[in-house]
């Protein structure tokens, strides 16, 4: 059992490491040569450019103004200063609402902490149960529910508090849901024209022996939506083409690298191996090889492109159908088209940026089978992931290595190395697995066939959350692997399970406090330092960058990463709710996490991240649902714990809590969720009418014509002349030619460009000397 | 334990009583004076009328043709002869599809029975486990799984059979779901014009300080559905008016009764008491009293009617909105209208006959609270209903009666009466409760706020099914009340529960066989006799009937009673699926039930029942879902049973069964359920186009104008002149006056009238000499 002293030491270490990260960040961000690592968002918005060539050579790389170092925490107030409407304008609604999750944590837990400390801590403290008993206890346990004698009337305080906290949390959750729903509707209503407002994704177009897919779609919608249908774009299976284009790009990067290398050291032609990862195979002249590869691909790509466009087999039975009005699109997306509900499936088209193109090629039957497979696979992943890892661990022991690679024996036998391997190796397989887990979950979601990136991330997030609950939360409380737990629970009666877990909860408080400090405090502080992007940017900058455009490409702003970030926050909600009544001393640690994370992520969203898509906060129902489930878990566990405390009178009162919480959830679901899933006709009609009044001569068809072209037909900067041909072939209609710019340099289309918020760059500049 | 001899005796008794019922029916139905009891459907369709006055007086009441009695089972082939399309024409799709549930039972269980008897019975029979053991067993157990020794390899046969039965059942279920979905779509498509095809029920119209509800609705839909909105009808809270009208009608009936009485015996004016149920209170002249009452009501009704129409408070925030096209209505019903999802809720309007008017007055918030309350109430009803009954039973014992009513003592002390009371009284409270249960469940559903009678019946049916599973199925298998079971299960581990139940299953086979014979065989045979309607009709006929119209009203055709009938069938599905592998000897008994019930209900549907509404088989997803849940229950119980048999190798193979079954269910849900919940636009458009081509000058507005008027404004035959005034006031638009006939005498509007199926009456007549 950790004493208060131990905890203090641990806290000191973690606070110190967090401070180190923050100071390092403060210093690094002031160096001009790191500017593109710490302020990429402004570059992408075109509001900032590389340091000018004027001035001393050194100052272009290093900041020599010593005064700026004194104010090393200045970024914090800066990050907080931007008002929310501006933030939405600047970074999109998704990011702004994501930040509200941290705020929600503060809103729930600040009053809970205050009340718990004024009421529960004295109630727990003024007992002598632990002091009298001969169990091993720490000072922290004196403040927890463990210090109350069995059958005491004091448990009424905990029961009442459980009710108070639940009502408070529900109140805040309801307020927040209402607010986010309003923000979403307002965002959608005030947005500029966007292609997805007019467009519906139609899947499972039935094959017709006499007509092409494109004709079938056109006829169907001309018949069934005669007043509203405008145009459509068929979906091509361009996955192979996309692969080729990607390959060419990679080769181009390598070519640049080798050419730069050769330019710096002309004495020696760079060589490379052609085999796997450049580790084996024939050794060839790198520049020649890459040039030849690029030439080959330059030939293959147009051929493949030709094939995709002309081969009817590459046209998928899906199409993006656009309507004349938002009303027409809203109607089509929400209704069933055909009497066979597996044909002509319609749904809102995701934003063009948000479409996950490879999955558009998956047929319906396959999707349901895939979903089943992934469901089973995820079950096994959650409960049995330890089996392969244990197997790898059994291989990675010293005896096995010595047996398989006897030549290493003398080296391994050195005492220091041996102990290092023994201590390190068994954990490494698990560590690698945990690092790979989000990727594995994302691959699973992709396999399941979701059509939008936001959908993929939402699904991965919910899987990650479940994995965390089972393996981190329950796994830490009850020792043993998830499978052992499962086995134990199956053999236990239904009302024993909360007891088993509930009893162990107060004992694990110190463990979770340490966890919060390591993962929540130091981890969040490390996030702001962006070590990996920092290193990669400088490597790229050194090896590959020739032009300003290359430098732009070398930037890796990253994005919020909903699939990993949100489950992490949810885990803190769970801890806070579970321990609020049991061990209130844990609450301030969670408050620090929410506060710090809010500031850090607000800074990152303003200066760094560049969201790949905008889903208009479509994830909020998930966030809300998971907090509700955390509340129900905490209530059940509290009931389990209380029932072992002989508090026979107060425990039955807790029974109503989960029922009330779930009813509240159902109410919220009915009241607010439709705002996130459907598009009300009233809003659509209003926007349509306004637009018709403002721009009566708008050529909508031209606007929507190419909105949903596969990016591989759009992206290539070097084949601009081909492109128009392709469009013409694909559409066979008149085009209004527009000069497309490389998307990387232009502000993201859905955002208002810099003009509308002139204070932003000034504000940002003022913050930096 | 019952021996084969016992079973045979029981079977003989039940077969005999079933035969008695059938013979009694055969005799009674041939008597002309029972014609209106056994053939009311034909009277309602106007295809049959009272026996003519010609002929001998006796033959008008009694059938003297002895030959007709010889063919007393002739009604059976007659009932089977009508082909399904004609049946749909004659009685509606609901009835035709309801019959398919029995057919489905036959389709599933005939092959299952054959295979089980050829494979499982020999496998079970050729063992000597029970003979060697010293447990008490019956011959039936020799054919069951109990006869297999522990750990035998023969359990593989049961495992394989469980798979075979599951696959067969799923195959048949899928075929049936597809067929019913097709039938539904075809029925809807081929139907004549019906008001509900064009109409949407709008609830939660937001209040507007400047406009009446009617104006708000009109403006909203003129703005948001400008091309499609046609007209609307507001909903009045006419519950009080309906009550008054009902009261007047009851008084009228009594007046008729007393007048008839007085006419027969003029020596004495009939008297009545004014108090509760005519049991207490002042004694007055009955004819004068009733006349006065009717006069009072005749004054009050127009006043109340005036109030309902003119008082804005009696207008509910709901309206039936009609559209110009089916397309427009389909769009409006499936989309969200307002950004606040609790306002302007739209759903398909039920058929006018199907609307449950009193519930239209319930606001949205109240509905969710009501749902929660009823959920909790149903939980308590299911698990704790024994508590009040036990309390009543404790009161209804002899000592208590003697104490409270000492004057009864001499009577009670007679030995015969005492033993009768002792044997009979304790059971009577339970029996009364079970008889009242469907009514209680229906009241619960009504309280929940469903808006259509079909919805009420579906909800009651699913509750009744759950009650049956918990209290009849589990209650019979495990002795003890549901609450004791619940308590036991909570204290048992999750995988112990199927074991506890599974082990008891083979032992209860004889009990359930007896149950099937009593409830399924004799009960169904009694259904056809219609004892209660028979008695009531003759009583009414004797005491109140003066005119032919009165005689029409005295008929009580009844209807299918989905809320009680369907759960009964489902219970047999459950028994069949559970015992198919365990004790196959039970299967033939179930086959007889399905066969007999099919014939009986086909006869009743053709000749007797008059459906109150037509939901176009909207109940099928419920039927399908309950059979699936019965399959999953049977699989879990089989797993529990097998795991106690030391069949360690074969049991794990059963694990995949519930997963496969549930996946199958999800697939079916996705594939077929939308056909029952939504209305595809393609179909709507097709019908619209056809109609426009056929009847270009149709005045749809006139057709829809008064379709959804509260029946209380329509029903009164005697206030025809008032009515038109009311319509004018309510609608304030031009009306096309149509002469409405009393609905009782006309064929139900949605059905094709007799002309289209001229063979029906002939066919029916041929069957009767």
TrEMBL record, chains A, B:
- Domain named CSC1/OSCA1-like cytosolic is located at 197-359
Q: Name the species this protein comes from.
A: Coffea arabica
- Specify whether Transmembrane is a keyword of the entry: yes
Entry-linked InterPro entries: Csc1-like, CSC1/OSCA1-like_7TM, CSC1/OSCA1-like_cyt, CSC1/OSCA1-like_N
Please give an example of a GO cellular component term from this record.
plasma membrane
Look up and give the membrane topology term.
Answer: Multi-pass membrane protein
For the region Disordered, what residue ranges are annotated? 738-769
Bias class Polar residues marks the residues at 744-759
Q: Can you say where in the cell this protein is located?
A: Membrane
Q: Which PANTHER family match?
A: PROBABLE MEMBRANE PROTEIN DUF221-RELATED, PROTEIN OSCA1
Q: What's this protein's name?
A: Calcium permeable stress-gated cation channel 1-like
Q: Which gene encodes it?
A: LOC113708562
Q: Which GO terms describe its molecular function?
A: calcium-activated cation channel activity
- Domain (CSC1/OSCA1-like 7TM region): residue spans on this chain: 370-642
Q: Which family does it belong to?
A: Belongs to the CSC1 (TC 1.A.17) family.
**Major subcellular location class:** membrane
Tell me the domain of life: Eukaryota
One Pfam family here: RSN1_TM
Q: What is the lineage of its organism?
A: Eukaryota, Viridiplantae, Streptophyta, Embryophyta, Tracheophyta
Q: Where are the transmembrane segments?
A: 12-30, 101-120, 155-174, 372-396, 416-443, 464-483, 569-602, 648-668
Q: Which UniProt keywords apply?
A: Calcium, Ion channel, Ion transport, Membrane, Transmembrane, Transmembrane helix, Transport
Domain CSC1/OSCA1-like N-terminal transmembrane, chain residue ranges per copy: 9-176
């Amino acid at each position: 059992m950790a004493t208060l002293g131990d905890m203090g030491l641990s806290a000191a270490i973690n606070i110190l490491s967090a401070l180190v990260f923050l100071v390092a960040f403060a210093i690094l961000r002031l160096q001009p040569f790191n500017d593109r690592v710490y302020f990429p968002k402004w570059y992408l918005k075109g509001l900032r450019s590389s340091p000018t060539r004027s001035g001393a050579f050194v100052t272009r790389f290093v900041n020599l103004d010593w005064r700026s170092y004194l104010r090393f925490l200045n970024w914090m107030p800066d990050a907080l200063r931007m008002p929310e409407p501006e933030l939405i304008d600047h970074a999109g609604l998704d990011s702004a609402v994501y930040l509200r999750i941290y705020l929600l944590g503060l809103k729930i837990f600040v009053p809970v902490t205050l009340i718990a400390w004024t009421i529960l801590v004295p109630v727990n403290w003024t007992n002598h149960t632990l002091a009298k008993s001969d169990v091993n206890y720490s000072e922290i346990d004196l403040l927890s529910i463990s210090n109350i004698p069995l059958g005491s009337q004091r448990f009424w305080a905990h029961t009442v508090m459980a009710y108070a906290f639940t009502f408070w949390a529900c109140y805040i959750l309801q307020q927040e849901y209402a607010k986010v729903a309003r923000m979403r509707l307002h965002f959608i209503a005030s947005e500029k024209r966007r292609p997805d407002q007019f467009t519906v994704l139609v899947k499972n177009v039935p094959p017709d022996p006499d007509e092409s897919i494109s004709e079938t779609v056109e006829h169907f919608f001309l018949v069934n939506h005669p007043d509203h249908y405008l145009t459509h774009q068929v979906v091509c299976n361009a996955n192979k083409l996309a692969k080729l284009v990607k390959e060419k790009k990679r080769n181009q990067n390598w070519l640049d690298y080798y050419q730069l290398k050769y330019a710096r050291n002309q004495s020696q032609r760079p060589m490379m191996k052609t085999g796997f990862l450049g580790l084996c195979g024939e050794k060839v002249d790198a520049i020649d090889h890459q040039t030849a590869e690029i030439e080959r691909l330059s030939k293959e790509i147009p051929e493949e492109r030709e094939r995709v466009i002309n081969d009817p087999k590459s046209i998928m039975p899906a199409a993006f159908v656009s309507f004349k009005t938002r009303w027409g699109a809203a109607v089509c997306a929400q209704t069933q088209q055909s009497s066979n509900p597996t044909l002509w499936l319609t749904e809102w088209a995701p934003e063009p940026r948000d479409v996950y193109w490879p999955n558009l090629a998956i047929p319906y039957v396959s999707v349901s089978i895939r979903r089943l497979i992934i469901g089973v696979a995820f079950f096994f992943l959650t409960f049995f992931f330890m089996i392969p890892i244990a197997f790898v661990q059994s291989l990675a022991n010293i005896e096995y290595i010595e047996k398989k690679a006897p030549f290493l024996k003398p080296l391994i036998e050195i005492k220091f190395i041996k102990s290092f391997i023994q201590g390190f190796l068994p954990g490494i397989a698990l560590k690698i697995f945990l690092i790979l887990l989000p990727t594995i979950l994302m691959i699973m979601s992709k396999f399941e066939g979701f059509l939008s990136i936001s959908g993929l991330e939402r699904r991965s997030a919910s899987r990650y959350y479940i994995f965390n609950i089972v393996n981190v939360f329950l796994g830490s409380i009850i020792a043993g692997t998830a499978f052992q737990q499962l086995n134990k629970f199956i053999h236990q009666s239904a009302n024993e399970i909360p007891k088993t877990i509930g009893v162990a909860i107060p004992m694990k408080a110190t463990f979770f406090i340490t966890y919060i400090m390591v993962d929540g405090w130091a981890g969040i502080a490390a996030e702001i330092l962006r070590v990996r992007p920092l290193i990669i940017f400088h490597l790229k900058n050194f090896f590959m960058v020739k032009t300003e455009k290359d430098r732009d490409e070398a930037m890796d702003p990253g994005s919020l990463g909903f699939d990993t970030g949100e489950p992490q926050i949810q885990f803190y909600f769970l801890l806070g709710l579970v321990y609020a009544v049991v061990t209130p001393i844990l609450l301030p640690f969670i408050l620090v996490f929410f506060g710090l994370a809010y500031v850090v992520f607000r800074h990152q969203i303003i200066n760094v991240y560049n969201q790949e898509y905008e889903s208009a906060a479509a994830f909020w129902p998930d966030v809300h649902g998971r907090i509700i489930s955390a509340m129900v878990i905490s209530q059940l566990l509290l009931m389990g714990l209380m029932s072992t405390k002989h508090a026979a009178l107060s425990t039955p009162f807790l029974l109503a809590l989960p029922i009330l919480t779930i009813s509240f959830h159902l109410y919220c679901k009915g009241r607010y969720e439709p705002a996130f899933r459907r598009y009300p006709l009233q809003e659509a009609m209003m926007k349509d009418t306004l637009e018709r009044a403002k721009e009566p001569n708008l050529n909508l068809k031209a606007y929507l014509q190419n909105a949903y072209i596969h990016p591989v037909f759009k992206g290539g900067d070097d084949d601009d002349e081909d492109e128009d041909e392709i469009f013409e072939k694909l559409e066979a209609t008149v085009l209004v030619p527009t000069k497309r710019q490389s998307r990387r340099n232009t502000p993201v289309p859905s955002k208002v460009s810099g003009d509308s918020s002139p204070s932003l760059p000034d504000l940002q500049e003022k913050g930096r000397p």
